[in-house]
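Figure S4 source data
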Amino acid sequence: MLDATPLLRMYAQRRLASLAHQNPLEAQRKQLRWLLRHAAFTQFGKDHEFTKIRSVEDYQKQVKLRRYEDFWRDYWQKPFPRLTGTTWPDAIKFIAASSGTTTGKTKFIPVSQQMIASNRRAILDMLAFHLARRPGSRVLSGRTFMLGGSTDLNRPAAGVYTGDLSGIAAKNLPWWAKPRYFPPPTLAKIADWTEKVAALAPLSLSANLTLMGGTVSWLLSFLEQAMAAKAGATSIADISPQLDLLIHGGVSFEPYRRRFSDLLAGSRAETSEVYPASEGFIAIQDRGSGEGLRLLADNGLFYEFVPVEELDSAQPTRHWLGTVETGRNYAIALTTNAGLWSYLLGDTVRFVDTAPARIVVTGRLSHSLSAFGEHLIGEEIEAAVTGAAAHLGVHVTDFTVAPEFPAAAGDKGRHVYIIELSNAAEPEQAKLCSELIDQDLMDRNLDYREHRHGDVQMAAPEVGGAPPGTFAHWMNSRGKLGAQNKVPRVMSENAMFKSLIEMI
C-alpha cells in the first residue's frame, strides 16, 4: 500500500501556516455571515429575518437559545424525514440518530453535505497537528480503523438515510480513503456490536493498522478482545505494531488514562483527543495531552457560550469567542452548516486559553449532580473517581453515580456510585474508595463540603463494585452497546439506575 503520509505532510505544512496567522474572531464572524446568508430563505431564516442581521449582537437578539425538543416540535417533526428547506436550504440526505445518553430517547440530527465536508476537514486538521508533534510519523502508510456503528443505514424515505454518525461518516468516505479503510464493507455493515467486535478483533491482527479511533470505553473493550485473540499479547504493540495514532473522544479519557498508558508501553503510537458530536466537529488536540482542545473557528460552526449558572434565567448572557473568559464553566451552543441555530448541545466547557481558543470539556448539563444543593459538575466527579482508583492501584472500566433520596424521616440523602474495575472489587476496596471520593470532592467543591459537614445534610457516599462486563451487558440490554453510545456518568432517572442495580 502506497504511503500517503508525504501528501498529508504537504497539506499539513500549508494548513498549519494558515492557522498560525488566523484571526479566530474574524473567522467566526465570517462563518456566521455565510451561514445566515446561505439559510436566509429557509423557513427558519424567514421566521427570524436573517436578511436584516448584520452582527453577532443582531443575531443573538433575533435568534433565541433552543434545545433539541424545540427544533423537533417547531421545525422537524411535521416534515420528518424530509427536512430540506426547514432550517437548512440544501438536501438533507443523512440524519444522525444520536445515542440519547441520559434519557435513552433517540434524537435525530440533520447532517448536510457541508457538514460531512467539515467533518473531513477536521480530521485532516487533527492529522496535521499529529504530524507537527511527530514529524517522523507514517500515519497513512497502513490502514485506518474507526470503531463505530453500522454502515447499513435505515432508509425512512427515498434518498434519506438514518443511523449512527460514525456509520454515516464511513458511508461517505472520500475516494482516496476507501482503499485504506478497515474493516471490509461486509463487516462494517454488522449492526450487532458483540458479533461485530468478535469478527473484527482477530481480523485486525493482520490489517496493518496505523490509525485507530473511537469512543474510549469501547476502544478499550475492543483492544482487550484483540489481545485475547493473539497468544501472549499483553499490549497494543503486540497486536498493532505499526500503530502511529490512537484517536479518542466521546467521554473523558481520565478514568482510562492509566490503563491506556500500560497498554501503550512499547508502542510508537501517541493518543490524540477530539471533540466530535452528531451536531458538529468542535475541537481537536493541537498540543500535548491534557493541555486543552483547539476550537475549529473556520469550519462551518459558530459558537456561543452561556455561563452555566445563568441557563435558567430569563435572559442568560450569551458570549462568543470575542467575550469569553478562561476558567469559567460555560454551556456551549452551536450554529451549524446543517441547520442548527443557537442550539444548546448539552455539554459544558471551560476555556484554558483564548488566543487561540482552547477548551476542556467539563461534562454535560445532565451530568451535573445537585440533588441536595451540592452542585457537582461532571469534571469533579470524574476526577474524584479517577483519583481514588489511582490511589488503590486499580483500573476503572466504567462507572456511574445516582442520588439516593431519604426513605424515611431522619434519613439523609447520599450519592451511590457503581464502579466497574478491570478486576473484581474487594469489599474493603469499595469502602476505601468511598472515603477517597468523599474527601476529594470536599477538597474540590465548597458546596459539597458544606452539605457533607458533620453528616448533617448528606450522608457519606456509598460505592458498589460491579463485576467485569456489567456495564457492557447493561448497555446491551438497552440496545445501546458500542458505537457512539456512552454510559451516563450521572443517572438522575430512578428507573434507569434501578435497572442497573437489578442486573448487578
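Figure S5 source data
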Amino acid sequence: MTTATVRASGGTRLGRTSCDAAPEGGRPVLQVLERTFAVLEVFVEARPEWGTSEIARSLGLPVPTVHRILMDLRKLGYVTQDRRTKRFRLGSAAVVLGSRARVVADLRSVALEPVRLLSSELGETALLTGVSTDRTASICLERVESVKPLRLSVEPGRLLPLHAGASQKALLAFMPEEEAERVISGRLDRLCQSTLIDKKKLRQDLERIRRRGFATSLEETNAGVWGIAVPILTGTGVVCAVGIAGPSVRLTREGVRRSVRRTHAAASEIARTLAYRVPPLSIELGENELSLGGGS
C-alpha cells in the first residue's frame, strides 16, 4: 500500500516515520552529513578553489577528516582536483544537482497556480509529479487537494513506482527508451488490484499513452481511485506530469472527457511558460478511448 489514501474530511493522515541516525565507523551519520555539506558550502563564487588544509582551518575540522570527505566527493563527481596544484573545485555532479534544483524550483513556482486552478475547476486533487533522482520512481512535487469531503490525500515527497498510476505511467512512457526499459524489465510490484505487472500489457499501455498524449489509471495504486495525467516534455525526455485523481464514486464518462482536456490545458500552460512542450491529444475521445483501466 502507498501513503496516499482516500479519506473523509477530518480523517487522520498516515504519519511519517523516522529513524535515529545510525553509527557509521563510529561516527554518527548526521555528523558525517553535516560535515560533508559544510565542505561543499565553502565553494562559492568569490572563492571557487580550495586546498584541503584551507578547508580544514576554515571549518575547524581535522585535516584527515576533510581529506576523507573530499576523496568521497571526488569519487562521486561532486568535486574535482587539479592534478598539478592538488586544489579542489566543484565537480560536474554538483553542477548537475544545482541545475536540477533550479529547474524544480522554477517548475513548482510556475506550476502551482495552474495546478490550483485545475483542482478548483474539476473538484478533484491535482498533482505535479516528477522523476526521482535515481530515475526509478516518481516523486510528488506539489499537490492541491480537493475541498470535497471525500478526496485523495497525497503528501509532497511521496514516491511511487513508475509502472503504477496515471502520473507515473505518463512519465515512464516518455522517458528515454533505455531508462524506461530498465524499469519495465525490472521487478513490477502489485500495489492494487489493477496494477500492471505483466510486462507485455505495460508496454502496450505505454504505447497507447504515447499515441494519445495522456495516461489513465483505475485502482492501480489505491482501491477506489482513478487518475488522468499529461506529461511535460523537453527535447530529450520528460520533465514532469500534471495529473488529476479522485474517488471512483464520482467517476463519469463525461467527467473523464472534461478531465483529459482540462489537464492537458493546464500542462500546456505550464509548458509554454518554461519553453517546454506537451504531446498533442492525437485521438478523438471516443467510447473505446475513454476507458481508464490500463489493461483495456
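The chain is about 40% helix and 20% strand. Residues 30 and 185 are 36 Å apart (CA to CA).
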